[in-house]
Amino acid sequence: MSEVVVGVSTAESAGLRAVRWAAERASARRRPLRLVHVVDSAVEATGDAQLLLAALDRARASLADAATVALDVDPGLEVATELEQGSPVEVFAERSRGAELLVVGSDWHGGKRPSRRGVHSLRIAAASEAPVVVVPDIDVSARRGVVVGVDGSQVGARALAFAADEAERRAVPLVAVHAWDMALMAGGEYGYGPAMVAVDDLTDAAREVLDDALAPVASARPALEIDRRVEAGDPVTALAEAAAEAELLVVGSHGRGAIARFLLGSVSHGVLSRLEAPTVVVR
Q: Which segments of 121-225 are extended strands (E)?
């Protein structure tokens, strides 16, 4: 059975928020939960044995605290703990193979500048082979709704399916956002296309993309409340603003090329650099 893997950090508030999110997801999906803490190889590279022992002791304590939180969510949850040494990015990339979901925390708590740990979680998200959830240190318990970016692509369809499942399970609205950029739709990324493109025509075309993508979802889930939003402007801004009022954001990643495994698309990279809610990246 595929499992939910969660990275356990020593940052108490941010780390345990991610553990709780992962435990709730594993419980709802009836999946085992694996708690993984990685002591960075840089600690061992210092050659300081006492520093390494202290790091390992602290890691064991963090894993024990995380297991307690997970079992508080669901006492019947199957929980495994794992302590590793090495590169966190490489370890979590390996653990993501065959996992249903990889969950990592971030001490990002709003504002405009990500922390170093936020950047680190972005690298893990880029390397993962499973969908990744990055959980910021933000309380979203008073919010409702699952936001999803819709672009009509195959990876966008996978993100939409994930978001619809989550919205239905949580009994909250699905907020489907399709944002279009005038420069791109008018003829090129630098805006040197036809000058007389009617904005109304572009809006209608964007709305058609959204409606076509949502048609099978609405048909399969007639009870699901769907909030359809077509926005003119930067997709990252549109999604971040919608996510600021939601409990979850889901986006697809369009990382491409020979090193696509280590790349995220511009939109997924952008929203992870400006976390407004727990954010799922689906490849």
A: 132-135, 146-149, 174-180
Residues 6+ apart with CB under 8 A from 167: 145, 146, 173, 174, 224
> Please, are residues 194 and 182 in contact by the beta-carbon 8 Å criterion?
no
Residue 146 phi, psi dihedral angles, 5° rounding: -115, 120
DSSP per-residue codes, 200-214:
HHHHHHHHHHHHHHH
Domain 146-282 in CATH: superfamily?
HUPs (3.40.50.620)
Pull the structure tokens for residue 1: 């059975």
Residue 230 and residue 25: Cα distance in Å, rounded?
Answer: 30
- Phi, psi angles (nearest 5°) of residue 151: -135, 5
CA distance 146 to 172: 7
Q: What is the pLDDT of residues 14-71, one digit of tens each?
A: 789 999 999 999 999 999 999 999 999 888 888 889 999 999 999 999 999 999 999 9
The 10s digit of each residue's pLDDT in 192-202 is 444 445 667 77
Exposed (0-12), middle (13-18) or buried (19+): which is 82, by Cβ within 10 Å? middle
Reported confidence tier of residue 238, pLDDT bands at 50, 70, 90: very high
CATH hierarchy code of domain 4-135: 3.40.50.620
Residue ranges of domains in the chain: 4-135, 146-282
